[in-house]
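Aim 2, interim progress. The first record below pairs a target sequence with its structure tokens.
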Amino acid sequence: MVPGGWIKIHRQITLWEWYDCPAVFCLFMHLLLMANWEQGKWHGKIVKVGQLVTSRDKLAQVTGLSIQNVRTAINKLRTTGEITTKATNQFTLITIC
């Protein structure tokens, strides 16, 4: 289990525009659960609260989604403002908005 307590999700999540898209919903819930709850460092870079360092391959592996499904879900979440991303050739920094 990941340290840091719990997250609170309102029942009205069922009204969220991506609730009926299983891949997007699954990925977003995973991102919420894995985002930093306190500031930390990763390879000398500061990772703030609400951020996580990951990759499409890793997200596909832990969620059971295909890499294409992860890419599509990230694009949908980015387009509607739920997340921002900063990608390098080594990792992606995802920020929950």
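The second target in this work package is listed in the same format:
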Amino acid sequence: NYVISESSLPDDRIIGIDQCAEIIMEKFINFENPLEKLTSLKPIEFEWLIEELYKWMGYETTWTPSTRDGGKDIIASIKRPDGNEIVYVECKLYKTTKLTIKDVRNLHSVITNDKVNRGVIFCTGYVNDNLGKFDSRIQIWSYDTINVLLNAHLGINWAQRLDIVLDNKKRELARGKSLADN
């Protein structure tokens, strides 16, 4: 954006800025953490991690316990200048399983019935590209995109800090339970 706004920069400066941006992207954003870090989690822990990601992206979140989640694991909302956005998030922690059209249709039904802006499926397993064409309001993010999002918002060392993130969520849930008991 800086290069675009400063159209009078000499070519060598423009090249230098572009090279710096490329280095930053490769070192900090496109850095690949091992998929095994995610697939070693329990499904509930994967949901907590994705909820944390949405918090870091500025959303208010509600994690829905699996017994009554109605086809969504996380409800994320944010106030934007053009209106409020509500996103239903479904987390699929698969090692070898494929995401199916049934999974996409289930989320489609829920966002349609609840009149929600959009839905997102985070899937660590195989995702057929055609599934993403089912409904433009549903985004399907596979491991490559999940890794980039986690790197960009939680830092490239998110994989080393997983225990801290999960312990914080456990404490948060325990506090909420003890408050509800009182």
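The two ends are 52 Å apart (CA to CA). This observation will shape the mutagenesis plan for the next reporting period.
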